[in-house]
Amino acid sequence: MRLQDEPDIPAQINIVPMIDVIFAILTFFIMSTLFLTRQEGLPVNLPKAATSQQAQIPTKITVTVEASGQVSLNKKPTTVAALTEQIRTLMGTNPESIVVINADTKVEHGNIVAVMDQVRQVKGAKLAIATKK
Predict the structure, then answer these.
(1) Counted domains in the chain
(2) Residue 87 forms part of a structural domain
(3) Does residue 99 form part of some domain?
(4) Would you say 58 and 92 are in contact if contact means Cβ atoms under 8 Å apart?
């Protein structure tokens, strides 16, 4: 039985356990992201060899199709029919290259398909279409 003179204690929410849980979750995410970094091996001084090969960087080749229909390969005017051989020449001994098509929005769909068809005839060439956000 309570006395009438005793003041009511306001209800309180204790947030200390919630803060403990948040810090535990934060610690888990920090520790797990540290283990997600890709490590290819221990840091060592590698020996030198005369016959070693450098990692090959893919060649970037740009095909531009202007609104007028003019086709350019790396800023040099060309024709659609000549693209396959010119791309093969630019690729050289590099087995993989990225061919980026920059086409104006006013270019007809059929012209782009013709350019893509020429690029696909080159073995090892990867096709990309340039866009803007």
Answers:
(1) 1
(2) yes
(3) yes
(4) no
Instruction: Output the domain CATH number for residue 82.
Output: 3.30.420.270
* Closest to 60 (Cα-Cα) out of 102, 93, 90, 103: 90
- Helix/strand number for the chain, H first, E second: 3, 5
User: What is the rounded CA–CA span in Å between residue 112 and residue 116?
Assistant: 6
41-86 residue pLDDT tens: 556 666 676 765 655 566 788 888 888 888 888 888 888 888 888 8
What domain range is 118 assigned to? Answer: 59-129
Alpha helices in the chain (DSSP H): 16-34, 83-91, 109-120
- With beta carbons less than 8 A apart as the criterion, state whether 63 and 102 touch: yes
Q: What's the token pair of residue 18? A: 């919630």
Would residue 102 count as lying in a domain?
yes
Residue 81 counted as domain residue:
yes
Helix axes 83-91, 109-120, angle to 10 degrees: 40
